[in-house]
Structures are given as C-alpha cells and as structure tokens.
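Figure S7 source data.
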Amino acid sequence: MMTASRQDQPPPEDRAAPAQAFDVLIVGAGFGGLYALYKLRGMGLEVLALEAAESVGGTWWVNRYPGARVDIQSLEYSYSFSEDLQQDWRWTERYAAQPELLRYANHVADRFDLRRDIRLNTRVGAAHFDEVARRWRVSSADGGRWTARFLVLAIGPLSSPNLPAFGGAEGGIERFAGQVLHSAAWPNEPLELRGRDVAVIGTGSSGVQLIPNLADQASALTVFQRTAAYVVPAHNGPLDVAWEARIKADYAGFRARNRNTYSGFGSELTPRPISALDATAEEREAAFEERWRVGGLGLLSAFRDLLTNPRANELAAGFVRGKIRQAVRDPATAELLCPRHPIGCKRLCVGTGYYETFNRPNVVLVDVHAHPIAAMTPAGLVAGGREHRFDTLVLATGFDAFTGPAMRIDLRGRGGLHIQDKWRGGPLNYLGLAVAGFPNLFYIAGPGSTSAFTNFFVMVEHHVDWVADCLAWLDARGHTTIEASTEAESDWVTFVNATAEKTVYLGCKSWYVGDNVPGKPHVFMPLACGFPAYAKRCAAVANSGYEGFIIEA
Ligand code: NA7
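Tokens for the predicted NA7 complex:
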C-alpha cells in the first residue's frame, strides 16, 4: 500500500546549494499547475512550476492505460481562459482519449510559452514555512532548492496511487512473479498483452475503461470485483461538427451556463425540476431512457433529487440494474455485476461495452467481496480458498485521494507543524483552499472544495483566479502573509460534513470518505454543495476583505 509515509529530510535551508527565490512556487504542471503558471506569471510575478513527471499533463501523463478517456465531453472539459485557444483547438471525439488530452496540455504549454518556467523530473520532497523570513523553503530529492512567498499545490486530488497490501507481509504483492501494472503508473513503452493471461483488480472508472480493452488483447482475462460499478454508456464518437460550431459561436455563453450548473458541465441537458418520486413510472422510465440514449453522467440529473433522496436514487439504480440484466447473458454474472449501493454514491462510471465484455468466452468475473483476496502467490492470488493463476496483474485500485498527494510531501507550517499530524484525523482547511498553520499556502482542487464533483477545468480556473485576486489584494495593501484562522477552518469542516449529510454520498464506501485505503480515517473530504454555491461563498469571503483569514502586514 502506498499510503503517505513521512519522508523526513534534512531541513531545506541546511543544504549546500543556494536557493533560488521566487514570488510563487507551484507544485504540479497538470491542468491546474499550467493555468496557475500562466495566470500568476501574467500578473508580473516570478513563478516556477515544479513537476515530478517527465512531461506536463498531470493525470493525463500517468493514466495512459489502454482506454483512458475523459468522462466529461471535451468541449466542456477544457480551458475557457483564452477565447483564441478555445476557438482554435479542435477535439476529434466527443470524449477525448488520453493521447489527445496530453497533446492539449503540451499545446497549452507551448502556446503560452510556459515551459521556460517549468522544471520537469522534479519531485518536491520538502516544503517548510520559515516564520522569520515568511517564506516557503522548498527542496527536491535531486538537490534543488527554492524559496517563495507563496506555495500553490496543484498536485491534484487523485495523484497518489493506492497499492493495497493483499495479504500483508506474508502474501503481499511482491510474492507474485509475473508483471504488475497500475492504471495510474502505466508504462510509456508499448506493452504486448496478446496471448497473455491477465487479471484486473478494481472495477472503478479506470477498471471499467481498461477491462474491454484488455479483453480484446488478452487470451484470458480474470476480473476481480469487490464492488460492482454502475456504468452508463459514453456513446463516444467523432465530435459532431455542427454542435461544435454552435458552441463556438458563443463559447463564453456556454461556459457561463456550465458554471451555473451543480457540476460545472452539462448545461445542455435540461434538468427536470421535480422529484423522481413525483413522476409516474412511465415518465420516469422515459426520462432515464432519454438520458441513457444521450450517454454520460447526465443520468444523475434526470430528476432533481437523485443524489439527495435515497428512495428517488433507488429508482435510477433499479433502471441501470435492468440495463445490466439485458446486457449480460449469464444470469449469475449479471447479478454479480448489479451494484447494490446508491447510484452516484461512488463516482458514476462512463464506459463503452463494459457489461457486454462479460459475455466474452475469455472473460471471467470473480467476486472478491464475498471472498476477499487472502494472499498473492508466485503464480497468482488466493481468494475463496482457491488459487487463480495469471501472468500479468493490472491494479486498477484507484488513489489515496485528496490527502495522499499532500501527505507524501514533508510539508510543514508554523512551528514545524507537519501536514501528516494536522490531517491525521482527516483534512482540515478553509474554503478548500487554505490550511490554518500553513500561511501563504493554497491547495488547488483539493479536499474541502467541490473538486470531486466539478468539471476539473471549471474548478482549477476558479481556484487559480481566486488565488490570483487574493495575491493582488495582499500586494496592493503591502501585506505579507495570509492564513486561515482555526475557527474559520473548523466552521468550514462542519459545513462540509453537514452538506454531505443531505446527500446519498455517505451511503457507501468510496474514495470520497477514504474507505478505499485501509487505515485511512473515515471522513467525507469533498464538498457536495455544488459549484455555484461554493463559488458564491469563495467570492463573499474575498469581497469581505478575506473574512476568516489572519492577514499580517
Ligand atoms: P476507484 O474508483 O477508487 O476504483 C478502484 C477499484 O479498485 C474499486 O473497484 C475498488 O473496490 C477496487 N479495490 C481497491 N482496493 C481493493 C482491494 N484491496 N481488493 C479488491 N479491490 C480493490 O479508482 P479509479 O482509478 O477507477 O477511479 C478514480 C477516479 O478517477 C474516478 O472516480 C474518476 O473520477 C477518475 P471498492 O469499490 O473499494 O470495493
């Protein structure tokens, strides 16, 4: 298991090489980091982005497994900050595949001349706040040293892979003699899986995309399922050029309408403002069927209360179970593939031919909920008292979400307070952006924000713009530090929890609550109030002169 392990390092200030000084250091050059660099540098600040990978692109660099594809339509899942960029860039498909998303990230880096301020292959090992100098001192494992007034963590909510122990020291993953791959650390070189006996553990979004692709290649595919997934069809295909032209005729208006929806996308699907319980059975069926035909995540907005009322939710869940039973020929396999938890409680998956894959003669589904994986062996794994043998193991086991990425950095605030101590019981922060005890630190798209439920581009543009306004405000007044107060932080955490109580998200185990990582505290980490309400709160705080923050001259 790759949980956060404290990587104590010598204090950065004790290293030999002199530190380079910046106004802002950004950690990460994914879509959040790239925009932060563009925006903050454009304000005349000295900015450097440090990126652990050998490429820009973040998520879309590491998650390059076969079938990796975005689950929000590309005309929506893209930057809005530059009208020229959004007009010029042409997506080829309704849902872009990973290579195209990576090309987009590279195009943005080149187009806005960002590379000169990005240092690749640089994993930040330590970041300590120096209270005397009021600066962040940052170092990398390869000896790099920097200081900056502000530290922006654009490390993403899902960038720390979850590697379960499977049987611990006695029967752990290292016992397996074959090849082990993780969906979020896929090799860059071509991989030949033809003729191989492949196993997959994990049936979340990554597994759902991988499984049909692996089934095409492998001679045998065994899928180990702990929790069945609700999968709606993507109906992916070439981008409809007429639709593209219509959107591009008023792209700004389309973006604005999207920002006004709960999730920052999907404004073209008119939500029914009624409860699913108030519709007749025929109306409900027609509404779900229409969303199913359109494809994508819009099924969950077919009625206004699918994510807040368990009884309404069960009607949508039952509809999808009906689809699974139609798609899968073997009744026992179909029942095993039918999820029992509320739909949307775990992130809804968008797939292509997922359920139909289990009709193939080379695919076997194994239930590791009833019979958990007991141990790995050199030739496979043991579950349900028998050994399953294979020669390649694909882990699609997800991420140590939200807190994992920050907690694997030796990140220390005032008085040497370590983020691992601060967040031992779960993430504490204010507005999802700032942490008490960690001045001049901002977390883009992290816990306590609507990141998990919001179109990522809408989220990062909003966060970066908010941070940029904040820095300009501080500089205009000659202030040096800004830090969340513990009271504001505690009120925010209460708000995050109270909001979750009104939803179906607490009705299952998921990465939203840390349950996918053994030993992680069970705490609801994202904010479920919807993007417009969240953005309004962030704006109100800024407009009030940063209420809830302690500001020092
Ligand atoms: P997810 O959605 O966290 O899925 C991980 C899968 O791995 C899920 O089916 C897990 O079952 C399974 N898993 C994790 N640990 C184990 C163990 N120990 N044994 C068996 N099965 C296990 O990660 P993804 O990468 O698919 O997607 C993450 C997000 O990326 C996604 O939501 C999108 O936003 C994009 P479980 O459900 O925990 O029982």
